[in-house]
Amino acid sequence: MKQRLFLLGIVICSFLIITGCSSNDNMTNEELIKADKEENKISSMIDTINELDVNIYQFIIYDIKDNDCYVKDLDLENMNYELEKSQKEFNDIDFNLLEKNCRYKEAKGKEDKIVYDLSMLENIKQNFSDIMGLYKQMIELGSDGSYSNSDYDKVTEYKESINDCINSVNISMKDYDEFFKFYALFINDIDKVTLSEIEEKLKKSNYKYEYEERYKKDTDSNKEQTLNALEAHDNNSKDSITFQGYKNDNNDYELILVQYNIGNSKNEVDAMSYSFLGDNKISYGAYNSKTQDKPEFDNLDEQYEYFKELKNQK
User: Fold this and answer.
1) What is the pLDDT of residues 143-167, one digit of tens each?
2) Could you tell me where in the chain the CATH 1.20.120 domains are found?
């Protein structure tokens, strides 16, 4: 009898392994319905964050400034109320269920039905949390009854960090290849970010990278300027991303060009997508070495469509 039960146990375990189903992957109909609602909460939360910009940041920048930077108790109460309401909405999102739903669909071979994959959920959860914390710090600056000039500098700094978080969430939700997402992450900040800041993000990623020092003559002064290029490599292909910057007074390198290289190496590039700052606006372009085409684009989405065509030509 014991032997039969033992064999039956082996058969059941083997079946579960073969089918890829475990109790942890299973979802009830009730959970599947709830997961759809949780996905809608994420969309709603994005709208809520946009409202915080009006109810907190713009209120501090415009309304309180018009009142000689003095903060009334009612001002603090209203801002804290808006933040607490948003925090409650964020806390109400069941990320554990969404992660379970994602694993369930992966196990069932329904990846095309996944709205937010695991990496997206992690990115959204972290950035939403960071945004709540930054708005809290923004409000606390006025807790002594006024906002000083240095406080307003910090408010601007916090808002830039919030914009970075929102940009990261927006990029993670795009239907881009993972390595292209890393390329896209820095485009909006091309005039603000430095190579050392990019290196910090590379250290937290799984991408290998190296530095390469370059020199270029300034056409006006005819003096040689020091450039530096940070080369990041994709783990699943031979593609790479070049981050190029000029040396500044702080002995760092200000980003001026981000270039996605499609090819065997940086010396054998079949094609590329690139973005740079020119005339105070971001320019999006590409180069196809086979056709010699050099198209330009109005935005990142258009650039990505052409990028996919270049990848398919390989």
Assistant:
1) 999 999 999 999 999 999 999 899 9
2) 29-173
Q: 128-154 as b/e, with b when 16 or more CB fall inside 10 Å?
A: beebbebbbebbebbeeeebeeebbee
In whole angstroms, give the CA distance from residue 258 to residue 251. 20
CATH topology of domain 29-173: Four Helix Bundle (Hemerythrin (Met), subunit A) (1.20.120)
What pTM value is reported for the model?
0.78
Q: Is the pLDDT score of 15 beyond 50?
A: no
